[in-house]
User: Fold this.
Amino acid sequence: MSWIQTLNFPFMQHALIAILFAGIAFPMIGVFVLSLNLIPLRFAMMHVALLGGAIGLFLKVDPLLLGLLFCILSSMALGPISEKMKLGVGILSGYFMTLTLALAFILIYKADIHVLEAFNILWGNILSLTILDLIIVGLISLMILIMVFLFFKEIQAILYDREIALAVGLPEKLFYYLIIFMLGLTIAVSMRMIGALLIDAFVLLPAMAATLISRSLKQTFFFSSLFGLLSGMAGLYLSFVFDIPTSSTIILVASLIIAGCFLFRRRLSGYEKVR
Amino acid sequence: MHHSIELAELYVRLGNVSVLQGVNIEAKPCEFISVVGANGAGKTTLLKVVNGILKPSQGRITVLGYNLSHYKNLNFLRKEIGVVPQKSNSNRFPICVEEAVLMGRYGKIGLMRRPKEPDWDKAYEAMKAVGISQFSKKLVPELSGGEQQKVALARAIAQEPLILLLDEPTTYLDQESRSEIMEIIHTIHHQRELTTLLVSHDDQLVEQYSDKIYLLKEGKGYLIK
Assistant:
C-alpha cells in the first residue's frame, strides 16, 4: 500500500489534521516555555494528568477526560497560588509533581487499579484520534494563534522581561497566568496525541530550533511553527515508510532540524567573524 | 505645588529583615534626587516601593498626587513612570534595539492595539536623545554594557514619563561611559522636565547632577545635600 493510499483511512486523515493544527500552534507555547523557563511545569502537568487518570479509572469515568480536566484546573491555579505563596512556578511545580504522583500511587494501590491502565494516559497515539480529539486540538490551536496575534506586543514584553512589562504599565500578571493556563491546556491535549513523554516533539523541540536561527520574536514564532509542521508531517510520512513508531519519528526529525539549525548558526557566526 | 514623590515614615520588611525603617524622601516636580548608600542599604527596594511593586509595612507613599495605598491596580500610574533597571534579564530571545525601545510605548498604546507611526517616532526620538540611533537594527545582546544601558534609558524616555526612576545606571560601566551616561540622563532630565529619582552607591558621581542627595544607612534616610 502506498503512502497516498493510506490517506483514505480516517485515522490517517485525523492524524494529518491534528499535525497541521498542533504543528503550527503548539511550538508557540514552546517559545513561552523556553523564554519563561517553565520546563518544570510540563513535568508537573504530566503527573497531575496521571492522578486525574487514576481517579477516572476509580470512578469509572473516562480517564483521559479527567486527566484533561485536572490539567486545566491546576494550570488555572498554579499562577495565582505561586504568587500568593511567593514561590516560583518552578518550585511549586516540583511540589505539585511529587504530591500528585504520591496521591496517584496511593489510589492505584488502594483501589486495585491496574498500573498499566493508569499509565496509559502517559502514552498517546496520534493514529487513534477521534473527531472529538480533533475538535479539541483545533480549538486549542486556534486559541493559541488568536492569543499570539491579538496580544503580540504584550507577550513580547513579558517574554523579554516581566519586570519591564510591569514597569511600562502592562497587566503583566494577567498575561503570565494566561500563558501558564494555555501551557496546561496544550500539555493535556498533547498527551492524548503523542503521550506525555513525547510532548517535547510538538512543544519544545521546534521552539528550540527556532531560537537558534531567529533574530526577533516574530521570526521565532514563525520558524517554530514551520519546524513543528515540518517535523510532524515528515515524521508521520517516514514512520509509515520505515514502519517505526510515529511519535518517536517526529522527535527524530525535530532533533535533526535542531542539529541543522545549530550548524547553520555556527556557519553564520563564522562568516560574520571572517567578515 | 504637590510633590511628585513623597515617602513619609516608610517601613519595608522583606521576610524577617527590616530594610527601610522610617524613611522620609520628597521630590518636587522637575527635581533631580539621588539616593546613595552601600550595597544592601535598600536602594532598589526603595525604587520598587515608589513603582508600587513592593508594598510597605507602614508609611505613606504619594506619587504624582496619588496615595498608592488607595489603589489596587497601579498600571495607570506606571505608564507615567519610566524605569531603568540595574540590569535587564532580557537575553532570552533576540530583539533589535528599535523594538526594545518601542516597548516603552506598550503601556500607553493600550491592549490589543498595534504601535502606530507616532509611537515609532517617539522611539526614534528617544534613541536619538541617548545617541543609539545608529544601532537601531542591531540585536540588543550584541551591544556593549554601556550601549545596553542606553537602550534601557531610551525605552524609559520613549514612554514619555513624568517621573524617571534609575537603579544604579552606571554600575557595569567604565569611568568614561559612567560620565557619558550621567550627562545624557541630566540633559534629558532638563529637556523633558522630568522628576528624576536615581539610586547609586557612587555619591561622588551623582553629586554634581543632583538637586538633593539622601543617604540610606541602616534603614534610615538622611538628607546630605
User: Anything to note?
Assistant: The CA atoms of residues 126 and 193 of chain A lie 5 Å apart.
